[in-house]
């Protein structure tokens, strides 16, 4: 469930990353946060009525394509040096 992920898996992954020397600080950029917010809003709007049709599926495919194109062309910010 989502509660188990939030309370166990994510902190466990951060601790394992720290032990392996891999920075995992859960500091997300503004683009990542915005995309996640829109993904949640789109999924909520599709699933609230309990049924779907071809147009809702088409809108989801277009949204996935826009997100993939966004991540493909937007340059990744350089990671800060870990001291």
Please describe what this structure looks like.
- By secondary structure, this protein is an all-alpha fold.
- The chain is 69% helix and 0% strand.
- The chain contains three helices and no strands.
- It has helices at residues 2-20, 30-47, 54-73.
- Helix 2 (30-47) packs antiparallel against helix 3 (54-73).
- The mean pLDDT is 83.
Characteristics of this structure?
mainly alpha; single chain; 83 residues; 0% strand
Set out the fold topology:
Elements lengths: L1 H19 L9 H18 L6 H20 L10
Helix pairs in contact: 2-3
Run of helices and strands: HHH
- N- to C-terminal separation? 35 Å
Please count the beta strands (DSSP E, at least 2 residues each): 0
Strand count, sense and barrel status of the largest sheet are:
none
In round numbers, the mean pLDDT is 83
What level of helicity do the residues show?
Answer: 55-70%
Please outline what is shown here.
This protein has 83 residues and is mainly α. It has helices spanning 2-20, 30-47, 54-73.
């Amino acid at each position: 469930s989502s509660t188990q992920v939030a309370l166990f898996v994510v902190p466990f992954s951060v601790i394992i990353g720290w032990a392996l020397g891999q920075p995992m600080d859960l500091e997300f950029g503004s683009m990542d946060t915005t995309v996640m917010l829109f993904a949640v809003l789109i999924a909520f709007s599709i699933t609230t009525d309990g049924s779907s049709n071809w147009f809702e599926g088409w809108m989801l495919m277009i949204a996935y394509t826009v997100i993939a194109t966004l991540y493909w062309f937007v340059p990744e910010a350089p990671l800060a040096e870990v001291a």
